[in-house]
Amino acid sequence: MRTSLKFLAALLVSNFSYGQDISKKIDSIINANHQKNPDVSISVGFVSNNAEYFTAYGNLSKDSQTKVDKNTLFEIASITKILTSNLIAQAVIENKIELEDYIDNYLPKAYVLNKNLKNKIKISDLASHQSGLPDIDFAKLIEIDPQQPVSSITEEKLTTIINNCTELKDYGKYRYSTIGYTLLGLILEKVYGKSYDKIIKSNIINPLKMTNTLTINFDVKNKVVGYNPDGGAQELFNWNITAPSGLIKSNASDMVKYLKAVLNNETAIGKAAMMTEEIFYKDEKRELGLGTNIMTDEKNTLYQKSGDLMGQSSLICYNRAKNWGIIILINQRNSEIRNKLLNEIYNTILK
Q1: Per-residue DSSP letter, 215
Q2: CB 25 within 8 A of CB 349
Q3: What b-and-e string marks burial along 190-205, b requiring 16 or more CB atoms within 10 Å of the CB?
Q4: Quick one: CA torsion of 141, 143, 145, 150, rounded to 10 degrees?
Q5: Is the whole model's pTM more than 0.85, yes or no?
Q6: With contact defined as beta carbons under 8 Å apart, do 149 and 141 qualify?
Q7: What CATH fold (topology level) applies to the domain 22-63+72-350?
Q8: Longest dimension (CA), the chain
Protein backbone atom coordinates (compact mmCIF):
# COMPACT_ATOMS: atom_id res chain seq x y z
CA MET A 1 0.00 0.00 0.00
CA ARG A 2 2.88 2.40 0.78
CA THR A 3 4.31 1.85 -2.69
CA SER A 4 0.91 2.55 -4.26
CA LEU A 5 0.51 5.76 -2.27
CA LYS A 6 4.00 6.90 -3.23
CA PHE A 7 3.25 6.17 -6.86
CA LEU A 8 -0.02 8.08 -6.66
CA ALA A 9 1.69 11.04 -5.00
CA ALA A 10 4.37 11.07 -7.68
CA LEU A 11 1.72 10.92 -10.39
CA LEU A 12 -0.17 13.85 -8.85
CA VAL A 13 3.00 15.91 -8.60
CA SER A 14 3.85 15.05 -12.21
CA ASN A 15 0.40 16.07 -13.46
CA PHE A 16 0.54 19.28 -11.43
CA SER A 17 3.97 20.17 -12.81
CA TYR A 18 2.78 19.40 -16.33
CA GLY A 19 -0.20 21.69 -15.88
CA GLN A 20 1.90 24.44 -14.39
CA ASP A 21 4.31 24.22 -17.32
CA ILE A 22 1.45 24.54 -19.82
CA SER A 23 -0.06 27.48 -17.93
CA LYS A 24 3.27 29.33 -17.99
CA LYS A 25 3.56 28.81 -21.73
CA ILE A 26 0.01 30.02 -22.30
CA ASP A 27 0.66 33.04 -20.12
CA SER A 28 3.78 33.84 -22.15
CA ILE A 29 1.77 33.80 -25.40
CA ILE A 30 -1.00 36.00 -23.95
CA ASN A 31 1.57 38.41 -22.51
CA ALA A 32 3.41 38.71 -25.83
CA ASN A 33 0.15 39.43 -27.61
CA HIS A 34 -0.78 42.08 -25.07
CA GLN A 35 2.57 43.81 -25.58
CA LYS A 36 1.72 44.10 -29.29
CA ASN A 37 -1.89 45.15 -28.59
CA PRO A 38 -1.78 47.06 -25.29
CA ASP A 39 -5.27 48.53 -25.69
CA VAL A 40 -6.90 45.10 -25.98
CA SER A 41 -7.77 43.44 -22.68
CA ILE A 42 -7.67 39.65 -22.55
CA SER A 43 -8.85 37.10 -20.01
CA VAL A 44 -8.06 33.41 -20.52
CA GLY A 45 -9.12 30.34 -18.57
CA PHE A 46 -7.64 26.89 -19.10
CA VAL A 47 -8.57 23.54 -17.58
CA SER A 48 -6.49 20.37 -17.90
CA ASN A 49 -7.35 17.15 -16.08
CA ASN A 50 -9.69 19.15 -13.84
CA ALA A 51 -6.99 21.62 -12.75
CA GLU A 52 -7.74 25.30 -13.45
CA TYR A 53 -5.36 28.00 -14.69
CA PHE A 54 -6.02 31.66 -15.47
CA THR A 55 -4.22 34.64 -16.90
CA ALA A 56 -5.37 38.15 -17.81
CA TYR A 57 -3.85 41.33 -19.20
CA GLY A 58 -5.17 44.84 -19.68
CA ASN A 59 -7.63 47.16 -17.93
CA LEU A 60 -11.40 47.34 -17.70
CA SER A 61 -11.34 50.16 -20.23
CA LYS A 62 -8.99 52.61 -21.91
CA ASP A 63 -9.86 55.12 -19.18
CA SER A 64 -9.55 52.73 -16.23
CA GLN A 65 -6.52 51.68 -14.23
CA THR A 66 -8.30 48.61 -12.84
CA LYS A 67 -6.82 45.38 -14.17
CA VAL A 68 -8.96 42.63 -15.66
CA ASP A 69 -8.85 39.24 -13.94
CA LYS A 70 -10.54 35.85 -14.11
CA ASN A 71 -13.73 37.33 -12.64
CA THR A 72 -14.06 40.22 -15.08
CA LEU A 73 -17.32 40.20 -17.04
CA PHE A 74 -17.21 39.93 -20.84
CA GLU A 75 -19.82 39.16 -23.49
CA ILE A 76 -19.49 35.58 -24.66
CA ALA A 77 -21.82 36.43 -27.55
CA SER A 78 -22.55 33.43 -29.81
CA ILE A 79 -20.93 31.02 -27.38
CA THR A 80 -24.41 31.33 -25.87
CA LYS A 81 -25.54 29.10 -28.74
CA ILE A 82 -23.66 26.06 -27.42
CA LEU A 83 -25.27 26.61 -24.03
CA THR A 84 -28.62 26.63 -25.82
CA SER A 85 -27.77 23.48 -27.78
CA ASN A 86 -26.68 21.83 -24.53
CA LEU A 87 -30.12 22.64 -23.12
CA ILE A 88 -31.70 21.08 -26.22
CA ALA A 89 -29.63 17.93 -25.71
CA GLN A 90 -30.63 17.84 -22.04
CA ALA A 91 -34.28 18.00 -23.13
CA VAL A 92 -33.66 15.03 -25.43
CA ILE A 93 -32.07 13.03 -22.61
CA GLU A 94 -35.10 13.89 -20.44
CA ASN A 95 -37.39 12.55 -23.22
CA LYS A 96 -39.07 15.92 -23.66
CA ILE A 97 -38.17 16.15 -27.37
CA GLU A 98 -36.44 14.21 -30.12
CA LEU A 99 -33.84 15.80 -32.36
CA GLU A 100 -35.67 14.48 -35.43
CA ASP A 101 -38.98 15.98 -34.34
CA TYR A 102 -40.39 18.61 -36.67
CA ILE A 103 -40.61 22.05 -35.12
CA ASP A 104 -44.26 22.63 -36.13
CA ASN A 105 -45.89 21.54 -32.89
CA TYR A 106 -43.28 23.08 -30.60
CA LEU A 107 -43.66 26.72 -31.66
CA PRO A 108 -46.03 29.19 -29.99
CA LYS A 109 -49.50 29.42 -31.56
CA ALA A 110 -48.69 32.78 -33.17
CA TYR A 111 -46.22 31.04 -35.46
CA VAL A 112 -48.02 29.51 -38.44
CA LEU A 113 -45.72 27.81 -40.90
CA ASN A 114 -46.54 28.07 -44.58
CA LYS A 115 -47.84 24.83 -46.10
CA ASN A 116 -44.55 24.47 -48.00
CA LEU A 117 -42.67 24.40 -44.69
CA LYS A 118 -44.89 22.05 -42.71
CA ASN A 119 -43.22 18.85 -41.46
CA LYS A 120 -39.99 19.93 -43.10
CA ILE A 121 -37.74 21.55 -40.48
CA LYS A 122 -36.36 19.35 -37.70
CA ILE A 123 -35.04 20.53 -34.35
CA SER A 124 -31.59 19.25 -35.36
CA ASP A 125 -31.80 21.40 -38.52
CA LEU A 126 -32.18 24.53 -36.41
CA ALA A 127 -29.30 23.53 -34.13
CA SER A 128 -26.92 22.72 -37.00
CA HIS A 129 -27.69 25.84 -39.06
CA GLN A 130 -29.31 24.10 -42.04
CA SER A 131 -33.02 24.94 -41.66
CA GLY A 132 -33.16 27.22 -44.70
CA LEU A 133 -35.21 29.82 -42.80
CA PRO A 134 -34.50 33.53 -43.40
CA ASP A 135 -32.28 35.24 -40.86
CA ILE A 136 -31.93 38.66 -39.30
CA ASP A 137 -30.27 41.25 -41.52
CA PHE A 138 -27.55 42.36 -39.09
CA ALA A 139 -25.95 44.78 -41.55
CA LYS A 140 -29.19 46.73 -41.87
CA LEU A 141 -29.84 46.64 -38.12
CA ILE A 142 -26.34 47.95 -37.41
CA GLU A 143 -26.94 50.86 -39.79
CA ILE A 144 -30.10 51.74 -37.86
CA ASP A 145 -28.64 51.35 -34.37
CA PRO A 146 -24.96 50.35 -34.11
CA GLN A 147 -25.08 50.23 -30.31
CA GLN A 148 -28.16 48.01 -29.92
CA PRO A 149 -28.91 46.43 -33.33
CA VAL A 150 -30.93 43.44 -32.06
CA SER A 151 -33.03 45.32 -29.53
CA SER A 152 -35.58 46.13 -32.25
CA ILE A 153 -36.24 42.44 -32.97
CA THR A 154 -39.48 41.90 -31.10
CA GLU A 155 -41.65 38.80 -30.90
CA GLU A 156 -44.04 40.43 -33.38
CA LYS A 157 -41.25 41.02 -35.91
CA LEU A 158 -39.91 37.50 -35.49
CA THR A 159 -43.38 36.03 -35.95
CA THR A 160 -43.82 38.05 -39.13
CA ILE A 161 -40.49 36.82 -40.52
CA ILE A 162 -41.40 33.18 -39.93
CA ASN A 163 -45.03 33.42 -41.01
CA ASN A 164 -44.14 35.25 -44.23
CA CYS A 165 -41.58 32.64 -45.27
CA THR A 166 -43.00 30.62 -48.17
CA GLU A 167 -39.94 28.57 -49.10
CA LEU A 168 -36.67 27.48 -47.55
CA LYS A 169 -33.47 28.81 -49.03
CA ASP A 170 -30.84 26.08 -49.40
CA TYR A 171 -32.51 23.72 -46.94
CA GLY A 172 -29.94 21.14 -45.80
CA LYS A 173 -27.00 23.46 -46.47
CA TYR A 174 -25.05 25.41 -43.89
CA ARG A 175 -26.15 29.00 -43.35
CA TYR A 176 -25.43 30.53 -39.95
CA SER A 177 -28.69 31.47 -38.26
CA THR A 178 -29.54 33.66 -35.31
CA ILE A 179 -33.25 33.06 -35.88
CA GLY A 180 -32.69 29.29 -35.75
CA TYR A 181 -31.35 29.53 -32.21
CA THR A 182 -34.06 31.98 -31.23
CA LEU A 183 -36.63 29.35 -32.24
CA LEU A 184 -34.74 26.72 -30.23
CA GLY A 185 -35.21 28.98 -27.22
CA LEU A 186 -38.95 29.12 -27.89
CA ILE A 187 -39.03 25.32 -28.19
CA LEU A 188 -37.29 25.01 -24.83
CA GLU A 189 -39.82 27.37 -23.27
CA LYS A 190 -42.68 25.27 -24.67
CA VAL A 191 -41.42 21.93 -23.34
CA TYR A 192 -40.26 23.21 -19.94
CA GLY A 193 -43.13 25.64 -19.39
CA LYS A 194 -40.91 28.49 -18.25
CA SER A 195 -38.75 31.26 -19.69
CA TYR A 196 -35.39 30.70 -21.37
CA ASP A 197 -33.81 32.75 -18.59
CA LYS A 198 -35.18 30.41 -15.93
CA ILE A 199 -34.25 27.29 -17.94
CA ILE A 200 -30.60 28.22 -18.43
CA LYS A 201 -30.31 29.23 -14.79
CA SER A 202 -31.88 26.01 -13.46
CA ASN A 203 -30.07 23.64 -15.86
CA ILE A 204 -26.62 25.22 -16.22
CA ILE A 205 -25.86 28.42 -14.31
CA ASN A 206 -27.14 27.54 -10.83
CA PRO A 207 -26.01 23.86 -10.69
CA LEU A 208 -22.47 24.90 -11.65
CA LYS A 209 -22.51 27.89 -9.27
CA MET A 210 -21.64 30.23 -12.14
CA THR A 211 -22.34 33.18 -9.86
CA ASN A 212 -20.90 35.80 -12.22
CA THR A 213 -22.73 34.61 -15.33
CA LEU A 214 -25.57 37.01 -16.06
CA THR A 215 -28.70 37.03 -18.20
CA ILE A 216 -30.12 40.34 -16.92
CA ASN A 217 -28.90 43.32 -14.88
CA PHE A 218 -25.36 43.74 -16.19
CA ASP A 219 -24.65 46.76 -14.00
CA VAL A 220 -21.64 45.31 -12.18
CA LYS A 221 -18.35 46.99 -11.40
CA ASN A 222 -15.93 44.36 -12.68
CA LYS A 223 -16.86 44.41 -16.38
CA VAL A 224 -14.96 45.51 -19.44
CA VAL A 225 -15.90 48.23 -21.87
CA GLY A 226 -16.00 46.75 -25.36
CA TYR A 227 -14.55 48.49 -28.41
CA ASN A 228 -15.46 48.21 -32.07
CA PRO A 229 -12.76 47.77 -34.74
CA ASP A 230 -12.48 51.57 -35.06
CA GLY A 231 -11.78 51.99 -31.35
CA GLY A 232 -15.20 53.33 -30.37
CA ALA A 233 -16.81 52.22 -27.12
CA GLN A 234 -19.60 49.67 -27.52
CA GLU A 235 -22.51 48.96 -25.19
CA LEU A 236 -23.31 45.48 -23.94
CA PHE A 237 -26.04 44.05 -26.18
CA ASN A 238 -29.68 43.71 -25.15
CA TRP A 239 -30.97 40.63 -26.97
CA ASN A 240 -34.68 40.57 -26.13
CA ILE A 241 -36.36 37.58 -27.82
CA THR A 242 -33.12 36.60 -29.59
CA ALA A 243 -31.48 35.86 -26.22
CA PRO A 244 -30.75 32.15 -26.93
CA SER A 245 -28.39 33.27 -29.70
CA GLY A 246 -26.09 35.61 -27.78
CA LEU A 247 -27.38 36.87 -24.46
CA ILE A 248 -24.91 35.55 -21.91
CA LYS A 249 -22.33 37.71 -20.13
CA SER A 250 -19.73 35.73 -18.18
CA ASN A 251 -16.09 35.50 -17.19
CA ALA A 252 -13.16 33.11 -17.50
CA SER A 253 -13.72 31.63 -14.04
CA ASP A 254 -17.34 30.66 -14.66
CA MET A 255 -16.70 29.45 -18.21
CA VAL A 256 -14.00 27.11 -16.88
CA LYS A 257 -16.65 25.70 -14.53
CA TYR A 258 -18.77 25.05 -17.60
CA LEU A 259 -15.84 23.43 -19.43
CA LYS A 260 -15.16 21.13 -16.48
CA ALA A 261 -18.79 19.99 -16.52
CA VAL A 262 -18.65 19.47 -20.29
CA LEU A 263 -15.52 17.34 -19.98
CA ASN A 264 -17.05 15.22 -17.19
CA ASN A 265 -18.94 12.41 -18.91
CA GLU A 266 -20.96 11.72 -15.75
CA THR A 267 -22.62 15.14 -15.44
CA ALA A 268 -25.93 16.03 -17.11
CA ILE A 269 -24.13 18.81 -18.96
CA GLY A 270 -21.32 16.49 -20.01
CA LYS A 271 -23.73 13.85 -21.32
CA ALA A 272 -25.63 16.52 -23.23
CA ALA A 273 -22.38 17.96 -24.62
CA MET A 274 -21.42 14.58 -26.07
CA MET A 275 -24.70 14.58 -27.97
CA THR A 276 -23.91 18.04 -29.37
CA GLU A 277 -20.55 16.68 -30.57
CA GLU A 278 -22.13 14.18 -32.95
CA ILE A 279 -21.89 15.19 -36.61
CA PHE A 280 -25.18 16.64 -37.86
CA TYR A 281 -23.79 18.52 -40.84
CA LYS A 282 -20.77 17.96 -43.06
CA ASP A 283 -19.50 19.50 -46.29
CA GLU A 284 -16.09 20.15 -47.82
CA LYS A 285 -15.47 23.07 -45.46
CA ARG A 286 -16.82 22.01 -42.09
CA GLU A 287 -18.20 19.44 -39.71
CA LEU A 288 -20.85 20.64 -37.33
CA GLY A 289 -22.60 19.18 -34.33
CA LEU A 290 -25.43 20.92 -32.52
CA GLY A 291 -23.99 24.42 -32.57
CA THR A 292 -20.49 22.99 -32.09
CA ASN A 293 -17.78 23.23 -34.72
CA ILE A 294 -15.82 19.97 -35.03
CA MET A 295 -12.20 20.21 -36.16
CA THR A 296 -9.90 17.25 -36.65
CA ASP A 297 -6.26 16.71 -37.54
CA GLU A 298 -4.09 13.62 -37.60
CA LYS A 299 -3.98 13.46 -33.79
CA ASN A 300 -6.89 15.36 -32.27
CA THR A 301 -10.56 16.22 -32.43
CA LEU A 302 -11.42 19.68 -31.15
CA TYR A 303 -14.85 21.11 -30.36
CA GLN A 304 -15.06 24.86 -30.72
CA LYS A 305 -17.39 27.85 -30.84
CA SER A 306 -16.52 31.51 -31.33
CA GLY A 307 -18.48 34.64 -30.57
CA ASP A 308 -18.27 38.11 -32.09
CA LEU A 309 -20.25 41.24 -31.33
CA MET A 310 -19.66 44.85 -32.26
CA GLY A 311 -17.32 45.33 -29.32
CA GLN A 312 -16.04 41.96 -28.11
CA SER A 313 -14.77 38.60 -29.36
CA SER A 314 -14.63 35.27 -27.59
CA LEU A 315 -13.81 31.62 -28.17
CA ILE A 316 -14.29 28.32 -26.37
CA CYS A 317 -12.45 25.15 -27.39
CA TYR A 318 -11.91 21.73 -25.83
CA ASN A 319 -10.43 18.33 -26.49
CA ARG A 320 -12.46 15.61 -24.80
CA ALA A 321 -9.96 12.83 -25.41
CA LYS A 322 -7.09 14.78 -23.83
CA ASN A 323 -9.30 16.37 -21.18
CA TRP A 324 -8.46 20.04 -21.68
CA GLY A 325 -10.46 23.15 -22.51
CA ILE A 326 -9.81 26.85 -22.98
CA ILE A 327 -11.84 30.06 -22.97
CA ILE A 328 -10.52 33.27 -24.54
CA LEU A 329 -12.26 36.61 -23.93
CA ILE A 330 -11.20 39.96 -25.43
CA ASN A 331 -12.82 43.40 -25.17
CA GLN A 332 -12.56 44.30 -28.85
CA ARG A 333 -14.26 42.95 -31.94
CA ASN A 334 -11.14 41.33 -33.30
CA SER A 335 -11.48 37.76 -34.48
CA GLU A 336 -7.96 37.90 -35.89
CA ILE A 337 -6.35 38.30 -32.46
CA ARG A 338 -8.64 35.68 -30.91
CA ASN A 339 -8.02 33.09 -33.62
CA LYS A 340 -4.29 33.77 -33.67
CA LEU A 341 -4.09 33.18 -29.93
CA LEU A 342 -5.86 29.83 -30.13
CA ASN A 343 -3.80 28.69 -33.11
CA GLU A 344 -0.53 29.56 -31.41
CA ILE A 345 -1.52 27.98 -28.10
CA TYR A 346 -2.74 24.83 -29.83
CA ASN A 347 0.10 24.41 -32.32
CA THR A 348 2.95 25.18 -29.90
CA ILE A 349 1.60 23.73 -26.64
CA LEU A 350 -1.50 21.56 -26.83
CA LYS A 351 -1.16 19.69 -30.11
Answers
A1: S
A2: yes
A3: eebeeebbebbbebbb
A4: 20
A5: yes
A6: yes
A7: Beta-lactamase (3.40.710)
A8: 73
